Structure prediction request, 397 residues.
Amino acid sequence: MPGVEGFMYPNEVSLYWSVLIVLYPFITGLVAGAFILASLERVFRVEAVKPTYRLALLTALAFLIVAPLPLQLHLGHPERSFEMYLTPHRSSAMAMFGFVYLWYLMAVLVVEIWLDYRADIVRLSQSTTGWKRLLYRIMTLGSDNISQGALRIDERVGWLVTLIGIPSAFLLHGYVGFIFGSIKANPWWSSPLMPVVFIFSAMVSGIAAVMLLYMAATRLRRQPIDMRCVDTIAMYMFYIFIVDFSLEMLDLIHRIYEADESFRSLDFMVHTRLRFSQIVLQLIVGTLTPILLLALTQVTKLSAIVRKRIYVISASLALIGIFAMRWNVVIGGQLFSKSFLGYTTYKMALATREGLLVSIALTILPLLILAVLVKLLPPWTEQTHASIPAAAAAQAH
Prediction:
């Protein structure tokens, strides 16, 4: 059979999880990472990253809306996914994702965004006309009190929601690593470090994505980039990246030291089927290069222009590396037989339901949703500071 080497049982030849299942943990990782970046300002009071606070929340919401779509397209009957709510199966980690997703979307992220934007929404409901006025009035949920006391309550409740949202974000993405790590039959996945690696890599990807979006949006708005903000974001991304890389190396060293019956097969995979995606893309291009570039900005004094270019390159390479890591986990774990005697390949189709074009569309869709959200709820700091006094004045009159 083409693409198959060695001996494989008939039920081991097909790859059941396609590129859509690669895209799913990548998107949820962006959600978790963006929310963690937002929590730096709200919970941990890192004032330097405040210019990206609202943008991070809107980015998390845009990607969270799209997160279930890869799974829906992968299902033969996507309408059956609603059965997880009607007949909950508590012992299934995959089934419980529906409740984790619903909790994080409705009880955490949407509530926090509404509380943070409530004063602006009230102001916009009073100053706009037509369909926008109606939309903003609906978004106020009948709450138009923007007195100083009400805003202080919003701030306290928002802080509590963000505090609850931090472990919720870890749970949202960590459970993906938990699913892979708990499959004992597959030695490529079966590792107790898998959930932790997924969480830290998610933080890296989400922070990198928000930094790129902030720099691109600021450039499009012809506004100066807050270098204190991006320097602080890059610093956190660098340290989290170091932890993520250390955990992955720890897992690798443990596998080499243990060297069980599956090690020869996994070693063959890394040096053949996954050489480019594992060694070149994930390790060299997507991990070591951005870490070294970020380290350069931490130990030397570079001009703002050079630092901005390094940040763009590092964040872009980090996103490539994290996607390659997801690819190597999902696809790589299906390329060898359970008997460790046979190997197969994965050929991605172009225009099928689980092909390349659909994956590209699902990657672009959150950006389009984010553009709409930014238009409706501007996240920029200078507009935020101007909106609350204006709203309070309108309420007073």
The first helix runs from residue 19 to 42. The longest strand covers residues 5-6. The beta strands are 5-6, 342-343.
